[in-house]
Amino acid sequence: MSLLSRALPALRLYGTGLAVSLHQLLRRLRPGGAPAPVFPTQNGNVAIVTGGTKGIGYQTVKHLARLGMHVIIAGNDENEGREAARKIKEETVNEKVEFLHCDLASMKSIRQFVQQFKARNCPLHVLVNNAGVMLVPERKTEDGFEEHFGLNYLGHFLLTNLLLETLKQSGTHSHNARVITVSSATHYVGRLHLNDLQSRCSYSPHGAYAQSKLALVLFTYRLQHLLTADGSHVTANVVDPGVVNTELYRNVCWATKVVKWMTAWLFFKTPEEGASTSIYAAVSPELEGVGGIYLYNEQRTKSTDASYDEELQRRLWTESCKMTRISDIGSRSP
After folding, report:
1. Which CA distances in Å does 260 have to 78, 245, 249, 264, 284?
2. Residues 292 and 236 sit within 8 Å (Cβ to Cβ)
3. Rounded CA gap, 315 and 317, in Å?
4. Could you report the per-residue pLDDT of 240-291, keeping only the tens digit for each?
5. CA 97 to each of CA 59, 68, 280, 293: distance values in angstroms, whole numbers, following the listed order
6. Which long-range contacts (CB under 8 A, 24 or more apart) does 170-175 make?
7. What CA–CA distance (Å, rounded) separates 325 from 159?
8. What sign does the CA torsion over 305, 317, 332, 128 have?
9. At 182, phi and psi to the nearest 5?
10. For residue 128, what are the β-bridge partners?
11. What is the signed CA dihedral for 294, 192, 134, 219, rounded to 10 degrees?
12. Does the pLDDT at position 1 exceed 50?
């Protein structure tokens, strides 16, 4: 493979990041701007947020807790998780914030988390698939999957499917349960390689990351199709937080780290700003009963053309069921 071919995924990724950063700057420079939305209280509702110990996930948990929701942080670091729950309880004066261990890089851990949650016999109104890794060197999850695809995508695919029955039981005609999945603008440059989902032929951390984010969009659209066909009171939407100043950039090259350090205050969103679309998707009355859409800056936005390919959605779903060893609920649905 030529040097240019190897460099293309990185060039596409950084090009997308630059375009989004410039858009964010222009938006910030506009005079005025809409006031922050005020959402109804969520007393009695239950949410699970993956990766809720820091960054966008932490801010999502904090805002949902402020609205009175019972929030469970799903994460893989016990000490970090318990400390995050303690701080949020303190800041929001909501005692119903807790941590449960869930390593999305382990199918066994995900199943154990779901068993623990179901043992409580409580409903589930909101699932926020937020956790992720970015640009990690080539390595595998506990189950042998390429880490971006295994953790970012397959982990959330399995978690959502295992919680689907609880979500269906919790949703009602007037108050649907909601699945919110965090993708990113990098999905626009992602390529889904159905014959090489593990990026074995030619590994690029940039290409693998973008593919995982595209897979999340395809998954969301297929999930909504199946929920609609089933008549379930559950909706599934996908959100794009923008370019946000979080710890996800720890694996970028040193030159990019220097540029980020110098310019993040101007071009990047804060984690709180980055969480706003996830929160909007989780609780906004405007989205009651609305599913299968891509949201950016709390607005419906068109995702990449490939994401609307229903055959591609179906094939990815079927392959994902095989990988995670669950029954394919969509096998009878066109």
Report:
1. 30, 8, 9, 5, 32
2. yes
3. 5
4. 998 887 775 565 555 665 666 676 667 678 999 999 999 999 999 999 999 9
5. 13, 10, 20, 29
6. 170/46, 170/123, 170/124, 170/125, 171/125, 171/232, 171/233, 171/234, 172/233, 173/233, 174/288, 175/125, 175/233, 175/288
7. 12
8. negative
9. -90, 115
10. 49, 180
11. 40
12. no
| Cα separations in angstroms, 2 against 7, 8, 9, 190, 202 | 9, 10, 13, 19, 11
Return the structure tokens found at 44. Answer: 């009695």
Angle among Cα 104, 61, 231 to the nearest 5 degrees reads: 70
pLDDT value for 66: 97
Burial 94-122 (b: 16+ CB within 10 A, else e): beebebbebbbbbbebbeebbeebeeeee
Distance, in Å, from the CA atom of 50 to the CA atom of 283, rounded to the nearest integer, reads: 17
Q: How far is CA 76 from CA 52, 55, 257, in A?
A: 10, 15, 26
**pLDDT value, residue 214:** 98
Nearest to 140 by CA among 185, 183, 107: 107
Residue 58 annotated among the catalytic residues of the structure: no
58, 188, 209, 280: which is the annotated catalytic residue?
A: 209
pLDDT digits (tens, 9 = 90+) for 167-196: 999 999 999 999 999 999 999 999 999 988
Which H or E run includes 282? helix 271-283
Tokens 């030529």: give the residue: 2
Helices (H) and strands (E) in the chain, counts: 10, 8
Name residues whose C-beta falls within 8 Å of residue 148's C-beta, 6 or more positions apart in sequence.
Answer: 133, 134, 136, 199, 205, 208, 209, 211, 212
Contacts of 14 (CB under 8 A, 6+ apart): 256
Block residue for tokens 């989780």: 282
From the list 104, 135, 83, the residue with the least C-alpha distance to 248 is 135
Question: Does the model's pTM come out above 0.85?
Answer: yes
Phi–psi pair at 158, nearest 5 degrees: -65, -45
Between CA 160 and CA 114 the distance in angstroms is 10
